Amino acid sequence: SSEPLETAEALLPRDRVTHALAGGGSRQFTAPRGDGTPTLYTVVPIVEGTMYAIGAWADGTVHRNGVIAFFQSPALFAVFMWLASLILVTYTVERQVVGPVRILAARMRRFGRKREIPPAPKKGLPEELQIIEREFRTLSERLIQDEADLVNAMHEKDVLLKEIHHRVKNNLQLISSMINMQERRAEEHETVTVLDHINQRVASMATVHRLLYQADALSEVRAEDLLKRVTSPLTELAPPRPGEAPLTVDTVLDPTVMLYPDQALPLALLTVEAVTNALKYAGDTGSGRWVRISLRKTGRDAVALVIANSVAPQREVGPKRKSLGARLIESFARQLGSTSVVSVAQGVHTLRVDFETMAFAAAADRIA
Fold this sequence. Notes:
- This protein is an alpha+beta fold.
- The chain has 9 helices and 10 strands.
């Protein structure tokens, strides 16, 4: 009303009942008010059938210029009331629904990034959002506890596996010591040679388990470290040959080759057999005696092991019957899912094995 609200009752239409003004949507009419003054009335439903706004302007009080005319114009009163209602609804939805949901979403994102349980929310949330908040906190606490239990279980598993590899390594070293004792008691040279070869194979298996025991990740072994450890005792203790040039050993190992245990063991044993044969048959070609050990990647998962040695001219023709070492090399190559290729040409004896690195389960299935 353009007049004080204390006199609102006197401003209502004199010839109409108040509740009769409800219904019929928005409308305007002119009627005398309580004191008989002609008045322009505007009725606008805020909530149809429940709440209505009534504007009353006495004849001659409506100004048609400036801001006053804008707000007192009966034609714009409905628009003004609609905007007021829209603002009220927007504020209510923002305060009661959108704002709390936004805060809850931010807490969920923070928990996802930092695993941090947010503090309890302030009171005043709608009951439905309070239920969601309580369930979220319960789920967060349970998830953190489950993750902690999983980490503990994985740590216990790693400890147990390391202990298994440690005990296997100790048992293999004990067997190696027993073989050494028997080797020292042997009188025949052939028996000593056989026991020494067996001891080298046992030591190679112990080396694999020692590396697994010392590794940070129990599921893979660095091939470079493995082959260095199994070949070093062989090359360092290779006996010199009277009347022949000193032996030169060149080793080129790719540090990026990673193997799973099911492939590391046959590769180590194959390398021991091949290097042992190379050291045994390395001959003087006139420019010296040498052995070359190479392990490199030839593709994304493809790896090539190449062991070559110099061959004296009179030994270029290989033996007619396969030795035990050659048969073992073929067997270990099959465990790697490959075959061994031997070639002798121009004073060079070469053994090459191409294989693909595999996951633990795939390697186990192929070996089985």
